[in-house]
């Protein structure tokens, strides 16, 4: 996939903490500011929580890639769950199919520099997010 690959299996709510810590460790090693580290770990928490809550299991994948002629930390959340019926609606603040506030996906999108959501009913969901690396890294 990329350099510095890390894959965290999400099979229970406890794995959210593991994914968050892996993201924190990688972002810190890449010299992100504490503010960016917090934003990255929060975004990871949100997408990992969605995997745990809606799909039951999946993976958080972390790595460094080149995107749009820049290097970026990539976070990819992948599951083979039920999928999202209306991905555009799922990115609207306040929309939730569960008991949440509907801030997870839209909030994650705001915390990162670039964001993509692909989903198909019965096939699963992939959320890919990028945060540009600090200059000189």
Task: Please tell me about this protein's structure.
- Strand 4 and strand 5 (124-132) form a beta hairpin.
- 36% of the residues lie in helices and 32% in strands.
- The chain has four helices and five strands.
- A five-stranded antiparallel β-sheet has the order 1-2-3-5-4, covered by helices on one side.
- The protein has one domain (3-132): 2-Layer Sandwich (Heat Shock Protein 90), CATH 3.30.565.
- Helix 1 packs antiparallel against helix 2.
- It is an alpha+beta fold.
- The protein has helices at residues 14-29, 34-55, 87-90, 104-111; strands at residues 3-10, 58-67, 70-79, 114-120, 124-132.
Structure described in brief:
The chain has helices at residues 14-29, 34-55, 87-90, 104-111; strands at 3-10, 58-67, 70-79, 114-120, 124-132.
Question: Order of SSEs, N→C?
Answer: EHHEEHHEE
Helical fraction equals 25-40%
Average pLDDT, rounded to a whole number, is 89
The CATH topology name reads Heat Shock Protein 90
The CATH superfamily title: Histidine kinase-like ATPase, C-terminal domain
Low-confidence stretches: 99-103
Silhouette: globular
Features:
alpha+beta, Heat Shock Protein 90, 5 strands, five-stranded antiparallel beta sheet, 4 helices, single chain, globular, 32% strand, 137 residues
Fold topology:
Elements: E1 3-10, H1 14-29, H2 34-55, E2 58-67, E3 70-79, H3 87-90, H4 104-111, E4 114-120, E5 124-132
Antiparallel strand pairs: 1-2, 2-3, 3-5, 4-5
Helix pairs in contact: 1-2, 2-4
């Amino acid at each position: 996939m990329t350099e510095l690959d890390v894959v965290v299996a999400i099979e229970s709510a406890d794995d959210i903490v593991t994914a968050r810590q892996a993201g924190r460790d990688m972002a810190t090693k890449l010299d992100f500011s504490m503010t960016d580290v917090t934003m990255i770990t929060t975004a990871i928490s949100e997408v990992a929580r969605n995997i745990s809550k809606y799909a039951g299991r999946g993976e958080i994948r972390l790595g460094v890639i080149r995107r749009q002629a820049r290097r970026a930390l990539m976070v990819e959340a992948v599951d083979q769950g039920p999928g999202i019926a209306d991905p555009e609606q799922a990115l609207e603040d306040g929309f939730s199919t569960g008991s949440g506030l509907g801030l997870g996906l839209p909030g994650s999108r705001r915390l990162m520099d670039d964001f993509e959501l692909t989903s198909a009913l019965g096939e699963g969901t992939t959320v890919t997010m990028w945060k540009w690396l600090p200059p000189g890294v």
